[in-house]
């Protein structure tokens, strides 16, 4: 099979149904992809998603890679960087073309580098980590910590955050389609009720946000479901919180490795890596729940 890489482009509404159809096959899940794509790719106040698609010789969409803009780093040394998060990587299971993920990613990273100094952050699972680190030049920072906390308890956000989330970005994050969001303004906490194997969990997206900003989101104080209290699940880098119970490796769906790649030759990579390694990165900053 021969393939054709389309030029990198910013996402458009007309292409979303075809992209959703590919993701339904390549990355199946219980909830539909189309509402999330519209939210992720088009409604982000930081800007539209950037994408690269690959097609077969018959014109069939067989691969897709996308990044979305994320907030600025909380350090004036890196104010020139436009930041992105590596989001959706999908290859049709019947494509049978080696290296499609790498080819689409290289094309998109090259486009971003040609436009402006940029930084791409990512969370790689066990299957994608080798591709990101060895083939695409991403540098690993370490594995995210996963922990459970008792109902009504919250992690302590003592480590400063890496990304500066403003009110518009937080309102967008809280508006995810079909998501049952709630908040604890006094703790600057944003949470979402999820279900894992049929059991309710409260995913802690963030703690330590400005209390007045969280209050203005207008979210309820708790989930509306019939199970008001549930264990709380937190994923973070640089913020190991006392009081939580680490999730054993055997219960992890996959190791989650925090990776980054600067697309800016003039940036001090060592200083950037040290900054990211010392700052907090949590569920709010990457699109998993």
* Residue runs with pLDDT of under 50 for 5 or more positions: none
Helix content, binned percent? 10-25%
CATH architecture descriptor text of the largest domain: 3-Layer(aba) Sandwich
Number of helices: 7
Q: What percent strand?
A: 25-35%
Cα(first) to Cα(last) distance is 36 Å
Supply the CATH class of the largest domain.
Answer: Alpha Beta
Radius of gyration based on Cα positions: 19 Å
Largest sheet: 8 strands, mixed
Q: What does the average pLDDT come to?
A: 90
Order of helices and strands: EEHHEEEHEHEEHEEEHEEEHE
Q: Based on DSSP secondary structure assignment, what is the total number of beta strands? A: 15
- Stated plainly, the CATH topology of the largest domain is called Aminopeptidase
Query: What structural category do the secondary elements indicate?
Result: alpha+beta
Overall structural domain count: 2
Q: What is the CATH homologous superfamily assignment of the largest domain?
A: Gcn5-related N-acetyltransferase (GNAT)
The shape, in one word, is globular
Q: How would you describe this protein?
A:
The protein has helices at 16-26, 34-42, 100-115, 129-135, 167-173, 211-216, 269-278, and strands at 3-5, 9-10, 50-56, 61-70, 82-91, 118-124, 139-143, 145-149, 180-184, 189-196, 199-206, 232-237, 245-246, 257-263, 281-282. It has 289 residues and is an alpha+beta fold. It folds into two domains: 3-143 and 254-285, Aminopeptidase; 145-251, no CATH class. The strands form two sheets. Strands 1, 2, 3, 4, 5, 6, 7 and 14 form an eight-stranded mixed beta sheet that branches. Strands 8, 9, 10, 11, 12, 13 and 15 form a seven-stranded mixed beta sheet that branches. A hairpin with a 4-residue loop joins β9 (180-184) and β10.
């Amino acid at each position: 099979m021969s393939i054709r890489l389309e030029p990198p482009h910013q996402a458009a509404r007309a292409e979303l149904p075809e992209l959703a159809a590919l993701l339904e096959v390549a990355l199946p899940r219980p909830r539909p992809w189309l509402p999330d794509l519209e939210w992720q790719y088009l409604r982000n106040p930081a800007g539209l998603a950037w994408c690269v698609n690959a097609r077969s010789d018959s014109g069939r969409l067989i691969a897709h890679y996308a990044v979305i803009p994320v907030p600025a780093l909380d350090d004036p040394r890196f104010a020139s960087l436009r930041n992105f998060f590596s989001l959706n990587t999908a290859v049709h299971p019947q494509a049978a073309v080696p290296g499609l993920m790498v080819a689409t990613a290289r094309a998109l990273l090259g486009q971003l580098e040609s436009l402006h100094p940029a930084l791409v952050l990512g969370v790689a699972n066990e299957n994608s980590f080798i591709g990101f680190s060895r083939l695409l030049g991403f540098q690993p920072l370490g594995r995210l910590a996963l922990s459970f906390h008792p109902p009504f308890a919250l992690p302590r956000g003592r480590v400063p955050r890496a990304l500066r989330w403003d009110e518009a970005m937080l309102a967008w994050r809280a508006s995810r389609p079909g998501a049952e969001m709630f908040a604890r303004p006094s703790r600057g906490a944003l949470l979402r009720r999820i279900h894992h194997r049929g059991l309710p969990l409260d995913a802690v997206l963030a703690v330590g946000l400005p209390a007045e900003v969280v209050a203005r989101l207008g979210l309820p104080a708790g989930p509306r479901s019939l199970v008001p209290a549930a264990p709380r699940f937190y994923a973070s880098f640089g913020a190991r919180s006392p009081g939580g119970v680490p999730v054993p490796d055997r219960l992890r769906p996959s190791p989650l490795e925090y990776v980054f790649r600067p697309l800016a030759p003039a940036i001090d990579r060592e200083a950037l890596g040290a900054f990211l390694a010392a700052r907090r990165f949590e569920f709010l900053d990457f699109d998993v729940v």
